């Protein structure tokens, strides 16, 4: 039998590490609750839901953008939005039944594992979710807030 060279073993380890999500619990939540609409890789579905890997990484760079992400998963969103030059007008369900840590992990999975944001960006914290949970809004208000952060995001 052929011996496996050390460099081959290293490649196997490296690719296993690359595939391993940094936010494993967030990944499990995403696969079970979000992938049906946004697809497992977050690239979205033209007739159903926008990609979450285009604007979410931009939003992660400003405090209002980070609030937007927390609001979207807590309260859902409806009304027309444009993502990556394509228009969407469907309803994002609300996920307020999940606790703050679970929602933070799912957003971090989107940002760090799917969208590969810069490692220098701070992860979303459970406290960020708790802050938005304390001020209830509806999906129309979430969309209105989105319109303000789209222009302010890098
Ligand atoms: C039933 C389909 C559906 C499911 C399930 C779903 N979404 Fe969405 N999501 C949408 C739709 C539709 C929109 C856009 C809403 C609009 O057009 O206003 C959206 C928008 C978003 C956005 C905002 C994207 C942007 O550019 O502003 C994020 C982030 C997001 N979803 C994350 C998630 C996460 C995380 C989950 C799972 C916890 C999830 N979604 C589950 C349909 C879904």
Structural account:
By secondary structure, the protein is mainly alpha-helical. The protein has one domain: Orthogonal Bundle (Cytochrome Bc1 Complex, Chain D, domain 2). Helix content is 53%, strand content 4%. It contains eight helices and two strands. It has a two-stranded antiparallel ribbon with strand order 1-2. A hairpin with a 2-residue loop joins strand 1 and strand 2 (86-88). It is globular. The N and C termini lie far apart (54 Å). The model has no long low-confidence stretch (mean pLDDT 91). The protein binds heme C (HEC).
Count of β-strands:
2
Superfamily (CATH H level) name? Cytochrome c-like domain
CATH topology: Cytochrome Bc1 Complex, Chain D, domain 2
Average pLDDT works out at 91
Outline the low-pLDDT stretches.
none
State the strand order across the main sheet: 1-2
- How many H/I helical runs? 8
The biggest sheet amounts to: 2 strands, antiparallel
Bound compounds, please?
heme C
Helix amount? 40-55%
Instruction: Report the structural category.
Output: mainly alpha
């Amino acid at each position: 039998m052929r011996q496996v060279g050390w460099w081959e073993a290293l490649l196997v380890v490296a690719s296993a590490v690359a595939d391993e999500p940094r936010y494993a619990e967030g990944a499990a939540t995403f696969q079970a609750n979000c992938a049906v609409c946004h697809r497992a890789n977050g690239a979205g579905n033209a007739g159903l839901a926008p990609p979450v890997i285009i604007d979410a990484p931009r939003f992660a760079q400003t405090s209002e953008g980070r609030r937007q992400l927390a609001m979207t998963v807590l309260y859902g969103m409806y009304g027309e939005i444009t993502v990556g030059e394509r228009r969407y007008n469907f309803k994002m369900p609300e996920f307020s039944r999940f606790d703050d840590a679970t929602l933070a992990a799912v957003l971090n999975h989107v940002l760090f594992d799917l969208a590969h944001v810069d490692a220098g960006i701070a992860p979303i914290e459970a406290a960020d979710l708790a802050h938005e949970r304390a001020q209830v809004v509806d999906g129309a208000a979430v969309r209105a807030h989105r319109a303000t952060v789209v222009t302010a995001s890098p």
